[in-house]
Amino acid sequence: LFLLFFTTHEELQTLDVDDAFFSTPEDIAARALKPQGGVNFIRTFKKQVEDQAVNLPPNLDELVQNATYVQSPDNLVWQYFYNLKGSAEYPFPGGIFQWARYRINGTGLNETEKIFSESLNKHENTLTLATLRIFSNGLGQPHFHFNANEMGYVISGCGQVGVILSGVTANFNIGIGDVIFFPVGTQHYIKSVCDEDLFLILAYSTGNQLETLRMNDYFHGTADHILAQLFFKKQDEFKKFPKPAK
C-alpha cells in the first residue's frame, strides 16, 4: 500500500507504457523496436479492456519466468530513496517529527541523507515529506510556512484542526483516512483529541529548506512595548510568557 503525493494542482496527466505503445502506429513501433517477425509480431499485442496502470494478471506465474533487480550504486539509489522510518527524530513539546527534506549545508544529515537532500534541491518542483506524531492531547501549535503548501493524510488517531486567517477561522475534526490542505502562508494548528497518538504523513511543496514561523516565535519576536499597545496590557505582564526553547 503506497500513499502518493504529486506536485501539481492541475488534473494529473499520466502516460503508461502500454498506452504509449498502443498509441504508436504499428509500422513505427516495428521499426523502432525491431522485433523478430516485424510488424506481424507487433500486431499480436492486444489492448486490454481495463486500464493497466496497476497490473497483476491472474496468470502472472505463466508470463514471468525470472524477475530480478540488481541494486544500483548508493550515489544513485539515495537520490531517489530515503529511509524515513529509520531517520532521526525531531521532538517538540507534544510530539515528534521525522523528515525527508532538504537542509542547508546538510545540517544534521548523514552521508546518504545528504545525497537525497541535495537531489531534492536540484529540482524546482518537488516535495519535502514528513511524519508527524502528536501525543494524546498534544498540540502542534499555530504556525505557517512561508515557502510551501502543505498536505497531510491521517494514518491513525483523531484530532482537531484550526485554520486562522485574517477575519476567517475554520475548525474541523479529522480521523483516519482524511486529507488536510493548508495553502502557503495559512496559519494552522493540529491538536490530538483521542486517547491514542495522532499520526500523519505530511507533504510540503518545496525543494528548499522549509521556512516556518510559529506563534510562540513571532509573539516573543515582537517587543513588549508593542504588545502592550496592541493588547492594552501592562508591558511587564508579557514577561509571564516563557520564551520558546531553541
TrEMBL record:
<dbReference type="Pfam" id="PF00190">
    <property type="entry name" value="Cupin_1"/>
</dbReference>
<dbReference type="GO" id="GO:0005794">
    <property type="term" value="C:Golgi apparatus"/>
</dbReference>
<dbReference type="GO" id="GO:0005886">
    <property type="term" value="C:plasma membrane"/>
</dbReference>
<protein>
    <submittedName>
        <fullName>GL25 protein</fullName>
    </submittedName>
</protein>
<feature type="domain" description="Cupin type-1">
    <location>
        <begin position="107"/>
        <end position="239"/>
    </location>
</feature>
<dbReference type="InterPro" id="IPR014710">
    <property type="entry name" value="RmlC-like_jellyroll"/>
</dbReference>
<dbReference type="InterPro" id="IPR053297">
    <property type="entry name" value="Dynactin-associated"/>
</dbReference>
<dbReference type="InterPro" id="IPR011051">
    <property type="entry name" value="RmlC_Cupin_sf"/>
</dbReference>
<dbReference type="InterPro" id="IPR006045">
    <property type="entry name" value="Cupin_1"/>
</dbReference>
